[in-house]
Design brief:
0% strand
Amino acid sequence: MDSTNPTGAQGDAGTTHATTIRFDADMWAAIQQHARRLGVAQAAFIRDATRAEVVRLAEREGVARELFGAELNGLHVRVERIEQWIGGRR
């Protein structure tokens, strides 16, 4: 993760990083179900869930506003929905 762009959001240079991740059948079904319920693509759901977790960890470390400023403001509602889903899985 680039420290100048810790969220992975598209920055000035317009670069993003693509990767492959694997889920078991139950997890993929849950991702599909929740993405459908939220009206977003599975990839968007996974990106937002990842952002939510990174933000949560940053908040725990007390650096969220410094690192994420505008990103936090724009993702607030989506992050809350995803955190509720993540919380239900624990």
